[in-house]
Amino acid sequence: MSRSHAERAALALLLEVAGTPKPGNVDRHRDHDGLRFEHFLAGAVGASEGLRAAAAGEPVGSAFETAVAGMGEQEGGNTQFGCLLLLVPLVRAASRDRLTRDGVREVCEATTVADAAGFYRAFEHVDVALADPPEGMDALDARRGSDAIPALEARELSLYDVMERSDGDGNAAEWTSGFPRTFREAERIRADDGPVPDRASRAFVRLLAEQEDGFVRDTAGPEAAREATRRAQACLRGAEDPERLADEFVERGINPGTTADLTCAALYVALERGMAV
Amino acid sequence: MSRSHAERAALALLLEVAGTPKPGNVDRHRDHDGLRFEHFLAGAVGASEGLRAAAAGEPVGSAFETAVAGMGEQEGGNTQFGCLLLLVPLVRAASRDRLTRDGVREVCEATTVADAAGFYRAFEHVDVALADPPEGMDALDARRGSDAIPALEARELSLYDVMERSDGDGNAAEWTSGFPRTFREAERIRADDGPVPDRASRAFVRLLAEQEDGFVRDTAGPEAAREATRRAQACLRGAEDPERLADEFVERGINPGTTADLTCAALYVALERGMAV
């Protein structure tokens, strides 16, 4: 009896939040006010049905909506929306025995207007922090939820098309380019050693050092996003202690959520490729 | 969309291990050598299929075996065998809308020889620490796994009968008496307040103070079991710091596993009765 694709995805959600320190995130040792570790545990359990649907071949948009609706069944608010946005196409690709950059690219490119509608409906299940939409995209502001569906249909936009129009969002960039950061980081995690949550922590710091976090930019501003990346680089050089940085960023509300999403996706790919827990 | 019975049971497994301090156990802040937090996360994910089988009406012994086989799919060894032994009949009772002492008693009393066989087969999926069997029960030593099945069949013993013959095991005592400690502790957890993992920690200390732990008795001896209960009582009186006791017990290998099982079962009942996370 080996783990199913959906079980690996649920485990990736749990390993991600268990990794510590992940500067600015909820982790095994840190909570935010009102958003605590146990909300992530409940989010992972709740997402499982949607992850199983993705593995069983249900359309990406509908599986994602189911996963988000289940994830949202806890008191903390949005815990893993971005993680699920990455996991669902990856699980779909894995269930087709095509968990490669090309395989997940095919899944994403094959999405339809109905998938885009599922994505928009997902925003009705949980309150997601979002920046203003790009120029000319007001009618497609994700905060409109299913009210945006007529505009999607009029413009015949697939979920892939929506992601292409999501300027500057790190998860959307993965979606439209075959998940380059996810697959690269998965290999680094596999090449690392020690307990998996420790590897998750190191992966998070590497990813943050490599690229500014879109969620920090949207919620705490561009200067905070630049600082977070600069200081993650200092952690990599050994010039800064990631434990202390984690305490400081939690205190200041600098929460690199997109980097956590990528860490989770990379953990999933590493589990699929044989990383033991 | 609300949580299913199986999801509540998986969440109870996760909340149990997240509770800290739980003197002597793996918890959010403590690992054992070779048995770490992430193994419990993977165990909870792996058990989910068997928990869904229990909720769907599959026989108790077979659902338990499936849950244990999935739980055992991680590198730490036995993480949640005892928890699952309590959860499976509770989930079965909940799925029949009878999650009461009488309801779970009916589930346990209705078990068959085939359920007992499933229980014995479960021991082949994971290495469970066990004491020597009671007098006259050598042929039914659980360490024999499925080799004990002919003896079960010859004596026509149901799983309930096997539990009745398990002298001094705290989980077996719950099984044969309508889960009195589980239901009582569930009400205390519901009456408590604050984050649920904190309530899990307090429940654990109360349960340990109330009764000696069978797993400690089997693995560290009767004096250690007496000491663990005496010192949990001191924690309740405020005469001892549970955080320091947790560090000491982990160091000394005093691991009140049966008390953790009961804590998990009580968390499950509390979730079923409306405790929010």
Describe the structure.
Two copies of one chain form a homodimer. Chain A is mainly alpha-helical and 277 residues long. Chain A has a single domain, classed as Triphosphoribosyl-dephospho-CoA protein, CATH 1.10.4200.10. Helix content of chain A is 63%, strand content 0%. Chain A is built from 15 helices and no strands. Chain A has helices spanning 5-18, 37-55, 60-71, 81-95, 101-109, 113-122, 149-155, 159-164, 170-175, 180-191, 196-210, 214-220, 222-237, 242-252, 257-272. In chain A, helix 3 crosses helix 4, helix 4 packs across helix 5 and helix 12 (214-220) crosses helix 13. The radius of gyration of chain A is 17 Å and the shape is globular. Chain A starts with a helix and ends in a 5-residue tail after the last helix. In chain A, 58% of the residues are buried. The mean pLDDT of chain A is 96. At the A-B interface, helix 1 and helix 2 of A face helix 1 and helix 2 of B.
Helix/strand order of chain A = HHHHHHHHHHHHHHH
Name the CATH architecture of chain A: Orthogonal Bundle
CATH topology value of chain A: Triphosphoribosyl-dephospho-CoA protein
Biggest sheet of chain A: strands, sense, closure? none
